[in-house]
Amino acid sequence: MEASTAPRFLTDPYLDWTAGEGIPVIEDFGVDLLAVETAPWARLGAHGAFVHLKGRGDFIDVVVVEIPPGGSTEPQRHLYEEVVYVLSGTGSTTIESADGSRTHSFEWGPKSLFALPLNARYRHFNASGSEPARFASTTSLPIMMNLVHSEDFVFDHSGSFPERLGDDRFFTGEGEFIKMRPGRHMWETNFVPDLATFELQHWSARGAGGSNMMFVLADGTMHAHISEMPVGTYKKGHRHGADFHVYAVTGNGYSLLWYEGDEEFRRVDWRHGVVYAPPDMMFHQHFNTSPEPARYLAVAMGGLRYPFTTDKRKTFMGMDVSVRDGGRQIEYEHQDPRIHQLYIDELARRGLTARMDAVLGSGA
Q: What are the residue boundaries of the Cupin type-2 domain, all occurrences included (predicted)?
């Protein structure tokens, strides 16, 4: 049978589309995005690569973009959401509403975070004449492409969503603090200049002096949050559905991952540039092994304002509730005893000391 007349069966329009873009497609459990090989991408006028993590789920992907020194991307717009985390380099982005009535420009650098409002026209510029600029975009392209399976609809639609641009100050690094309760406080904006210095809110229920902030970006359905672990500490084990992409921001450390009943842990070591996504309902736990506070960014589909799925709603309701009470967190007193000893041994190799007595007791 001719290929062109073969019946369509179990097709994935998104994967078919990525295969035709002519840039690398990387698949792995965890990836160092600073080391990903990119290739010229005609659509964008820059270099790019797709990164598909084992736990990415059905809704989102990661796109690595590198802009050469003094270069810029071609103007773009699209009917999917995009959350950008800057890995290296400096530059600027210009965003214009679909109807042309509003234009905003802002400058970014390493560890900046920003969102591209739905179907707004935009263009990225590298501010350096000698160094490339590289960023990672977490996007909802997979769900949109698989839903409508039409490239023209996704990339050449005239729809306007002016409410997604929000307040003008959201493009200047300012925002609005929305007070909820620990672990659910939100910062609404479109642009965070530096995630390494952004002020966080204490969240004791997650353990060991940790802090965080949830983001509402461009009034989107995409979720993002930043969390910090103090020196010598680690977070409580937890689990949720697929698609939370975890980006290391400051410090270094490792995460252990396991399914309920597993005898062994899977380990991912991380530092700035590394991303991984825990697979569906796989327990995971984050450990700071650096002499400075460690921060990480998590990006997913469905947030506190628009959870999108029932499972995401359950995650946000139960993320600091013990699994023994129907939640999704393992309390310190219930964790596998090996976990703490592994951490103590790891810190000892680095000449560091754990600071977990306040939550585990002096006999820890």
A: 64-135
Average pLDDT over residues 231-257: 98
Cα 213 to Cα 215: distance, rounded to the nearest angstrom: 6
pLDDT at 125: 98
Q: What is the pLDDT of residue 347?
A: 98
> Phi and psi dihedrals of 296, rounded to 5?
-140, 155
Domain with CATH 2.60.120.10 in the chain: 7-168, 172-360
Q: What pLDDT was estimated at residue 292? A: 98
Burial of 292: CB neighbours in 10 Å, binned 0-12, 13-18, 19+: exposed
**Collapsed DSSP state (helix, strand, coil) of residue 313:** helix
What whole-number distance in Å separates Cα of residue 233 and Cα of residue 294?
A: 9
Asked whether 226 and 248 are in contact (CB, 8 A), the reply is no
pTM of the predicted model, to two decimals?
0.96
Cβ neighbours of residue 360 closer than 8 Å, sequence gap 6 or more: 332, 340
Residue 275, pLDDT > 70, answer yes
Beta strands in 179-293 (DSSP E): 186-189, 191-192, 201-202, 211-217, 222-229, 237-238, 245-250, 252-258, 266-271, 274-276, 283-288
In 3D space, the residue among 221, 191, 217 whose CA is nearest the CA of residue 301 turns out to be: 221
| Most distant CA pair in the chain, distance | 72
Question: What's the confidence (pLDDT) of residue 6?
Answer: 79
SS3 content of the chain, % helix, strand, coil (to 5): 20, 35, 45
Residue keyed to tokens 């409002």: 117
Residue 64 banded pLDDT, cuts 50, 70, 90: very high
**Are 133 and 89 spatial neighbours (Cβ–Cβ below 8 Å)?**
yes
Q: Of 106, 86, 82, 88, whose CA–CA distance to 96 is shortest?
A: 106
What superfamily does domain 172-360 belong to in CATH?
Jelly Rolls (2.60.120.10)
d(CA 227, CA 10): 39
Residue partners of 159: CB distance under 8 A and separation at least 6: 79, 98, 119
The answer, yes or no, to whether residue 334 has pLDDT greater than 60, is yes
Q: What percent of the chain is modeled with pLDDT above 90?
A: 94
* CATH class label, 7-168: mainly beta
Strand duo 222-229 + 186-189: pairing: unpaired
d(CA 212, CA 199): 9
